[in-house]
Amino acid sequence: MTDPLRLVVLVSGSGSNLQALIDAATDPGAPFRVVAVGADRDGTLGLERAVGNGIPTFVCRVPDYTTRADWDEALARLISDAAPDLVVSAGFMKVLGPTVLARHRVINTHPALLPSFPGAHGVRDAMAHGVRVTGCTCHWVDAGVDTGAIIDQRAVRIEDDDTVETLHERIKVLERDMLVEVVRALAQHRTWQGPDGLSSGRE
Ligand code: GAR
């Protein structure tokens, strides 16, 4: 049997998507496992979840570096230390730099139907625009902000009484399933490119 795909998951907040990956990885025969969790800030629930599951963690804070390029280099090195096959940005609220992207294959999950509403406020921006359907997108990460090739999406209807919080919670229910399915498919196929539509656009 092939070794499980090694994942490094990057988080900034509550880490419910991380938890879904950790839980799915405990299935006997799961084709992936979370080998490290990285964050851009201390004291988050996401890091606590990792520690609680015995997963090594690292923190790489932008303000601790003189330049953004230094931070990018340090983050790339910390990720490399865990020797991942794939990096998953799951609620990581920083734009990854060129060094990380040159050295690592990265996917991201975003709470809107890209290419609409990229950026840090996908849920709020969709509501403000007045769309009736939004959702979530899993995509490869490239140098832009949420511009990489789309791997999968799920749609969610916006109800009249929704707030940003209620809508985001409903999106996250579908988002967690989507992310686990995408990672499982990537771990099983490992082609990174080809007829399954999972191309990273890099090779
Ligand atoms: C997720 O909805 C993710 O799509 C979003 O943050 C949430 C993290 O939730 N990411 C972005 O908005 C990135 N632009 P979690 O910490 O509970 O997994």
From TrEMBL:
<dbReference type="InterPro" id="IPR004607">
    <property type="entry name" value="GART"/>
</dbReference>
<feature type="active site" description="Proton donor">
    <location>
        <position position="110"/>
    </location>
</feature>
<comment type="pathway">
    <text>Purine metabolism; IMP biosynthesis via de novo pathway; N(2)-formyl-N(1)-(5-phospho-D-ribosyl)glycinamide from N(1)-(5-phospho-D-ribosyl)glycinamide (10-formyl THF route): step 1/1.</text>
</comment>
<keyword id="KW-0658">Purine biosynthesis</keyword>
<feature type="binding site">
    <location>
        <position position="68"/>
    </location>
    <ligand>
        <name>(6R)-10-formyltetrahydrofolate</name>
    </ligand>
</feature>
<protein>
    <recommendedName>
        <fullName>Phosphoribosylglycinamide formyltransferase</fullName>
        <ecNumber>2.1.2.2</ecNumber>
    </recommendedName>
</protein>
<feature type="site" description="Raises pKa of active site His">
    <location>
        <position position="146"/>
    </location>
</feature>
<comment type="similarity">
    <text>Belongs to the GART family.</text>
</comment>
<dbReference type="InterPro" id="IPR036477">
    <property type="entry name" value="Formyl_transf_N_sf"/>
</dbReference>
<keyword id="KW-0808">Transferase</keyword>
<feature type="binding site">
    <location>
        <begin position="15"/>
        <end position="17"/>
    </location>
    <ligand>
        <name>N(1)-(5-phospho-beta-D-ribosyl)glycinamide</name>
    </ligand>
</feature>
<feature type="binding site">
    <location>
        <position position="108"/>
    </location>
    <ligand>
        <name>(6R)-10-formyltetrahydrofolate</name>
    </ligand>
</feature>
<feature type="domain" description="Formyl transferase N-terminal">
    <location>
        <begin position="6"/>
        <end position="183"/>
    </location>
</feature>
<dbReference type="Pfam" id="PF00551">
    <property type="entry name" value="Formyl_trans_N"/>
</dbReference>
<dbReference type="InterPro" id="IPR002376">
    <property type="entry name" value="Formyl_transf_N"/>
</dbReference>
<comment type="function">
    <text>Catalyzes the transfer of a formyl group from 10-formyltetrahydrofolate to 5-phospho-ribosyl-glycinamide (GAR), producing 5-phospho-ribosyl-N-formylglycinamide (FGAR) and tetrahydrofolate.</text>
</comment>
